[in-house]
Specification:
The protein is mostly helical. It has four helices and no strands.
């Protein structure tokens, strides 16, 4: 694994958020805080940059699959 510490941490947070988006009814803002982002804006931007989907759209597509 040749990732920088920051990139590794970001990917870990995004992966945790993906699980929470699919398995809970928590708000996107709440999930952002739970996985360690400072606010929903930063979380949404990072999520969208990583997956090319907003957290809201990810939840719509993958929830209950």
């Amino acid at each position: 694994m040749n990732l920088s510490h920051d990139l590794f941490l970001k990917q870990l947070r995004i992966n945790q958020a993906k699980k929470k988006l699919c398995n809970t009814e928590a708000s996107i803002g709440q999930i952002a805080k739970e996985v360690g982002f400072l606010n929903q804006f930063n979380f949404t931007r990072s999520f969208k940059n990583s997956l090319e989907l907003s957290p809201k759209n990810y939840r719509k597509i993958y929830k209950n699959k």
